[in-house]
Amino acid sequence: MKSLPDQEEQIINSNVQRIWEDIVYSMDQYTSDGTRSRFYSPEEILKHCHTAASIFTQLLYVPIPTIEETKKTRLHAMIYLAMTCGVQIFLKERSLSKGHLPYKVNQDEKAIRHARNKIGKALSEGIKVKPPVSQVMELFIAQLDKPHYVRKFALRGREFNSEKFESLLPAAIMWGYLLAQELIVND
After folding, report:
1. For residues 137-153, b (16+ Cβ closer than 10 Å) or e, as one string?
2. Do residues 65 and 155 make contact, with C-beta atoms less than 8 angstroms apart?
3. Is the CA virtual torsion 140, 47, 159, 172 positive or negative?
4. Closest-CA residue to 186 (of 119, 105, 116, 107)
5. Is the pLDDT of residue 97 over 90?
6. Is the pTM of the predicted complex or chain greater than 0.90?
7. Which burial class, exposed, middle or buried, applies to 42 when counting CB atoms under 10 A from its CB (0-12, 13-18, 19+)?
8. Which of 16, 70, 121, 128 has its CA at a distance of 20 to 30 angstroms from the CA of residue 10?
9. Euclidean distance between CA atoms 90 and 45, whole angstroms
10. Quick one: pLDDT at residue 117?
């Protein structure tokens, strides 16, 4: 079972702790022998995260690799995990605030394209992330932004920009969060 990180400072918001524990628990469920993952869902949103993870990955290498090359990298998997965590943060936060209200995913192509453009614009202009989302993001980034992970992102014949990675990782989490926020509607 995955363990929660050591927490040197006390988290003020109890919802942050609950969201973080739910995410870690659902990650643990992914590695169980069950037939359905609780972490990688809903697929209707995550397929868009997969595509965006390829684009984010391309931004971190010089010269820029092809989409097919990026899909085979550890960095792509890490960014996809970050986006998935963003989706999970939204789902857990929504669940707590709306009393586990059922939802559905808007799958209209026009709405999806509009959502992606809106999110891209918002992230490029900069957004203020409020607690508990920012605190859960910090816990997640603290686990991923380790030197031993970053060393594994090297790609033969390409230069990896680790400084850009540090700023792009929170953006990847927020991309997943905002996409879920845009596409999830009450059932």
Report:
1. bebbeeebeeeeebeeb
2. yes
3. negative
4. 105
5. no
6. no
7. middle
8. 128
9. 12
10. 95
